[in-house]
Amino acid sequence: MKHRIVVLGAGYTGAIAAGRLARRLHPGDTEITVVNADSDFVERVRMHQLATGQDLKRRRLSDIFAGTGVRLRLARVTAVDVDRRTVALVDADGAEEIAYDTLVYALGSAAADHGVPGVAEHAYDIAGKQSALRLRERLNGLAAGGTVLVVGGGLTGLEAATEIAEARPDLDVAITARGGLGDWLDGKAQRHLRGVFDRLGITVHEHTDVARVEATGAVTADARVIPAQVTVWTTGFAVHPIAAATTLSVAETGQIVVDDTMRSVSHPDVYAVGDAGLAEGPGGKPLRMSCASGTPMAWQAADAIAARLTGRKIPRVPVRYFNQCISLGRRDGIIQFVTADDRAKPSLLKGKLAARYKEVICKGAAWGVANPMLMLPTRRRRLAAPRTESSTAATA
């Protein structure tokens, strides 16, 4: 009987893990199934572009996995039973359960409202394709002079605010940040950031907490009202609640706690990658939810699974950071070089060069997903013995 590997989610991390496993394991011994609700691969790092009217290249998952041996199942995951090793699915034909021997959990995350009243009812987000398209439609309906407020001064907020302001210079765009604008960046990067915001006419509300969102804007913690016809919520991400409903060991965030091979600390036949996994990075700090973390997590998980199943030595490459790539519209940006644990160094790229640098990074990431059999030499190894993943726990 073939060893059944089920990958939940086909974003960057799930698609990368599946493709890498297909290159590492012999199809005569393994069956790899990817479950995803959308038929297309979504470039999540470009959702601010989609929201402002730009059309993104379509990448069908059926084309991506063609010829790899990976099976694609278009369905929505409704539950996981890690004790029975089954996944509950719903598709156009109804509900079903599928079984696995090894599970790669890569369901990702969605926008987090942090319990702030009014966010669900009145705010927009760009955490996924459908929500970005919803914002796109709303922005298209705004007349000149319309007001937009971006709540959240992190990477997503900076990119959303500048993209909207550049695409629609006829709108009045503002942003709120709990701290100073880009205050985690190097001083030179902060100065460039402020210059871009000034050039684009973006109003900045620093050291501001939003306590409530209303149809006509936001109310701050100190009772100030910031008017906005459209409020865009970019204050972080929350993982899918499915993992927390299982017997898996999860953190307070709902993320699955994993070791340095991205394997669950409580269930050795489950791996979690991307936003869904809580892994320790350099300096003992948890890896942040990002593509920069998720991609190497997927590499590590796939290589560890393949090594354990084929009886080979498990490669361990520490996940570390090199830079933060920030697009500031289509023609400007900041590449902030950072330490291994993600602290800003006094070195950066800015302006058009930074914009081109980030575009290369984004295109490279998408190309890697879309061409899974071309990334590395294909060495499809046979399984060491007909055994389940959990039986290898003692030799990890």
TrEMBL record:
SUPFAM superfamilies: FAD/NAD(P)-binding domain. It comes from the Bacteria. Residues 4-302 form the FAD/NAD(P)-binding domain. InterPro entries: FAD/NAD-bd_sf, FAD/NAD-binding_dom, NADH-Q_oxidoreductase. The keyword Flavoprotein applies. Belongs to the NADH dehydrogenase family. PANTHER family: 64 KDA MITOCHONDRIAL NADH DEHYDROGENASE (EUROFUNG) (PTHR42913:SF3), APOPTOSIS-INDUCING FACTOR 1 (PTHR42913). This is NADH dehydrogenase, FAD-containing subunit.
